[in-house]
Design goal:
By secondary structure, the chain is mainly alpha-helical. The protein has one domain. It has 8 helices and no strands. It has helices spanning 5-15, 27-35, 38-48, 50-75, 85-95, 102-118, 123-129, 132-157. Helix 5 runs parallel beside helix 8 (132-157). It is globular and about 50 Å long.
Length: 158
């Protein structure tokens, strides 16, 4: 239960990615767009130091799991449409696989949205069976890995 009003406000701001989750159409896409600038930043950080880049993504994922779990209580529904911090975590995960360019970020964004909607194995399983914050975020992490790998392959071919 989230009773402290400051923690509640913090959870809402983070869970909605600064309000992107309130988009009337495609809030997941809006949340992914908020994360788009993180992709070249995280990829560049990874290029400079794999440990630093991976640590940043782990921190984002841990925060996303905690926030998503609390946000389900605040919004009164499991994986409520307003919760888009999972898209931020998924895009951050994709950044671990791609070059530190805006082209890579855009390709990763498109690939991530496709995989997030399609939910290929095991994302669909996690989406159906997962509970709490990990259930909300887990399928997006899978989509992020797939998007990162596919983006890397596409850019290698081009």
């Amino acid at each position: 239960m989230v009773t402290n009003p400051i923690v509640r406000a913090f959870v809402i701001v983070l869970a909605t990615a600064g309000g992107a989750g309130y988009a009337p159409v495609a809030p997941g896409t809006a949340g992914s767009l908020v994360a788009l600038p993180l992709v070249p930043f995280i990829a560049g950080m990874r290029d400079a130091s794999l440990l630093a880049g991976a640590s940043l993504v782990v921190a984002i994922v841990v925060l996303a799991v905690w926030v998503a779990g609390r946000a389900e209580v605040v919004f009164g529904a499991p994986d409520h449409a307003c919760i888009v911090i999972d898209e931020v975590a998924g895009m951050a995960t994709a950044a671990l696989f791609v070059p530190a360019t805006w082209l890579a970020a855009v390709v990763a964004f498109v690939a991530f949205r496709v995989f997030d909607v399609m939910k290929p194995y095991p994302a669909g399983l996690i989406d159906r069976r997962g509970r709490g914050g990990l259930g909300v975020v887990g399928d997006d992490l899978v989509a992020g890995v797939y998007a990162g790998i596919v983006t890397r392959l596409i850019l290698e071919v081009l």
